[in-house]
C-alpha cells in the first residue's frame, strides 16, 4: 500500500498531476498538500471511482498529516516563469519554498522518494539534498529531479522529423533542466542519421528551449502545466513500478552522482570530477537509483553542447547547495 503526497497540489501542475495519479491502482492514498485550496481539489478527486483514498491538507500545521508515512513525495510547489525570465530567476522565491518543504519531508517522511519538479531543478535538487544531510536522513538514491518533460518533448519533436511513433521513440536527454544545460543525444537515436546538420541543430535548440515556447504562448499566465503533469505522472508511475519490483525500469532523471559510485565514474570521465549532479539514464529499483548508465557515444556537435552546458550547470548546483550550507 503506497501513500503518495503531492506538495503544491492545488497548482497548475499539481491538479492535473493529481488527477493522473488518482487513476493508478498502485496508489492507496493520494495526499494533497498546498498552502491553498486542497480541500476542494481533494473533494473533487475523491469522487473518482478508483481505489485510492484522497485527502487534502492546507498550510504548515497540516504538513505532518500530509507527509507522514508517504512512500513518494512529488513537489511541484512554487512560482512558474513569465516571458523574459530564466528558470534561475525563480530561485529567489522557490529556493525558500523548497527548503521549507524539504525540512517537512526530512522530519515526517524521511524515507520517502522525493521527486522535485519545482524550478530551477538544477538548484532545487541540491537544496533538498543539503536539507536531508542536515537532518541526518540523506539517501542520494531517493532524491530525483524530474526532467521527464525534456524526454517527452524530445520524443515528440524528433518523431515528427523522422516519421516515428512518438509514444515509442526514446531520445536520451541528459545534463540539467534549463536551456543550454539540457543535452539531447540525437546521435544515439536510430533514424536520426537521415537528418541534416541544420535539422539536428534546430530540433536540439527546440528541445532545449521547449519550456520558453510554452511560456511565450501562455503570455504571462504561466509555464507548461499539462505536459508537465503528464511527464510527472510518467516518472512517478515509473518509480512506483520499480518499488513494486518491476525490472528494467529506466528513466532519465537528475540525481546526485553519489547515488551510484560505479556509474558516477563513467559519467565523470566525460563531465569532470566537479559535476556533482547530472541527469542521466537511471535504472530504478526498490531502493531508488539502482544504476546510473554511462552517457554513451557523442557526436562532435554534442561534445560542443556539453562544453557550453557544464559551467552553467556547475554554477546552478553550487548556488542551490550553498543556499543551505551557508545559511546562518
Ligand atoms: P502554480 O503557481 O500554478 O502552482 C504552484 C502551487 O504551489 C500553487 O498552488 C501554490 O499555492 C503552491 N505553493 C506555493 N508555496 C507552497 C508551499 N510552501 N507549500 C506548498 N505549496 C506551495 O505553478 P505551476 O505552473 O504548477 O509550476 C510549479 C513549479 O513547477 C514552478 O516552479 C515551475 O517552474 C515548475 N515546472 C517544472 C517543470 C519541470 O520540467 N521540472 C515543468 C513545468 C513547471
Ligand atoms: C519547462 O521546461 O516547461 C519548465 O521547466 C517550465 C519552464 O519554466 O519552462
Automatic annotation (TrEMBL):
Broad class of enzyme this protein falls into: oxidoreductase
Entry annotation: catalytic residues: 177
Native organism: Umbelopsis vinacea
Protein origin, superkingdom: Eukaryota
Start and end residues of each Lactate/malate dehydrogenase N-terminal domain: 2-145
GO biological process: malate metabolic process; tricarboxylic acid cycle
EC number: 1.1.1.37
Listed Pfam families: Ldh_1_C, Ldh_1_N
Similarity comment: Belongs to the LDH/MDH superfamily. MDH type 1 family.
Catalysis: reaction(s): (S)-malate + NAD(+) = oxaloacetate + NADH + H(+)
One GO MF term: L-malate dehydrogenase (NAD+) activity
KW Transferase (keyword) present: no
Name of the protein described by the UniProt record: Malate dehydrogenase
Binding site for substrate: 81, 87, 119, 153
GO (cellular component) term, any one: cytoplasm
Keywords: NAD, Oxidoreductase, Tricarboxylic acid cycle
InterPro entries for this protein: L-lactate/malate_DH, Lactate/malate_DH_C, Lactate/malate_DH_N, Lactate_DH/Glyco_Ohase_4_C, Malate_DH_AS, Malate_DH_type1, NAD(P)-bd_dom_sf
Keyword NAD: yes
Domain Lactate/malate dehydrogenase C-terminal: 147-323
SUPFAM superfamilies documented for this protein: LDH C-terminal domain-like, NAD(P)-binding Rossmann-fold domains
Amino acid at each position: 500500500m503506497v501513500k503518495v503526497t503531492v506538495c503544491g497540489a492545488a497548482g497548475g501542475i499539481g491538479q492535473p498531476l493529481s488527477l493522473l495519479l488518482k487513476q493508478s491502482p498502485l496508489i492507496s492514498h493520494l495526499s494533497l498538500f498546498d498552502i491553498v485550496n486542497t480541500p476542494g481539489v481533494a473533494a473533487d478527486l475523491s469522487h473518482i471511482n478508483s481505489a485510492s483514498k484522497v485527502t487534502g491538507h492546507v498550510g504548515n500545521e497540516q504538513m505532518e498529516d500530509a507527509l507522514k508515512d508517504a512512500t513518494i513525495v512529488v513537489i511541484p510547489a512554487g512560482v512558474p516563469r513569465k516571458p523574459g525570465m530564466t528558470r534561475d530567476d525563480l530561485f529567489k522565491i522557490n529556493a525558500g519554498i523548497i527548503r521549507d518543504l524539504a525540512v517537512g519531508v526530512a522530519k515526517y517522511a524521511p524515507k520517502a522518494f522525493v521527486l522535485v519538479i519545482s524550478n530551477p531543478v538544477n538548484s532545487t535538487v541540491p537544496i533538498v539534498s543539503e536539507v536531508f544531510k542536515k537532518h541526518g536522513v540523506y539517501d542520494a538514491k531517493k532524491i530525483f529531479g524530474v526532467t521527464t518533460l525534456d524526454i517527452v518533448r524530445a520524443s515528440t519533436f524528433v518523431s515528427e522529423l523522422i516519421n516515428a511513433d512518438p509514444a515509442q521513440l526514446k531520445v536520451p536527454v541528459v545534463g540539467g533542466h534549463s536551456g543550454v544545460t539540457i543535452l539531447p543525444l540525437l546521435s544515439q537515436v536510430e533514424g536520426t542519421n537521415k537528418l541534416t546538420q541544420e535539422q539536428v541543430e534546430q530540433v536540439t535548440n527546440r528541445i532545449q528551449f521547449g519550456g520558453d515556447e510554452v511560456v511565450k504562448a501562455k503570455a504571462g499566465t504561466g509555464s507548461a502545466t499539462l505536459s508537465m503533469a503528464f511527464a510527472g505522472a510518467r516518472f512517478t508511475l515509473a518509480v512506483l513500478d520499480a518499488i513494486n519490483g518491476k525490472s528494467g525500469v529506466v528513466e532519465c532523471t537528475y540525481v546526485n552522482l553519489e547515488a551510484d559510485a560505479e556509474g558516477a565514474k563513467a559519467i565523470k570521465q566525460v563531465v569532470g570530477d566537479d559535476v556533482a549532479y547530472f541527469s542521466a539514464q537511471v535504472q530504478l529499483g526498490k531502493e531508488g537509483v539502482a544504476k546510473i548508465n554511462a552517457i554513451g557515444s557523442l557526436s562532435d556537435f554534442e561534445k560542443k553542447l556539453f562544453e557550453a552546458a557544464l559551467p552553467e550547470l556547475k554554477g546552478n548546483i553550487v548556488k542551490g547547495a550553498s543556499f543551505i550550507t551557508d545559511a546562518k
